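Hey, I was hoping to borrow your eyes for a little while. No rush at all, and the record is pasted right below.
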Amino acid sequence: MTLAPPSEPLPFRDLEDVAAALRRAGSRLTTPRRMVLEALFAADELLTAEQIADGKLDLTSVYRNLEKLEELGVVRHVHIGHGPSVYGLLGDGEREFLVCERCGKVVVAGTDQLDRVRAVIREQFGYEARFTHFPLHGRCPDCIRR
């Protein structure tokens, strides 16, 4: 099985930037899509579709809008663990993730911060690694000290 390459992220700072980018891409900022984006902009962390719906939106509509926003390069989903996928805005570009397998803490890293790790994987195995969809798992500094 191969994963499709990620969409090129659309640069944006706020909801109006996203609305303009959607229009340029031939899409619209519908009311449900706006509500999904408002939830993501208001969040300090990655959210599940259920958290985004928050009883105000139909879950099917949330998933449909998240899928479209991901196709357009506005949102990315990540598989943090055994639970549901979580979603976050791309904004100014891709992010990669590290997850503590003990406490569940998620650390967001810029792609350049993991370039040396990618170089080792490329040298040793010939793979071009990305940690945007499936993050690196290990133990955070706090859990190592415990």
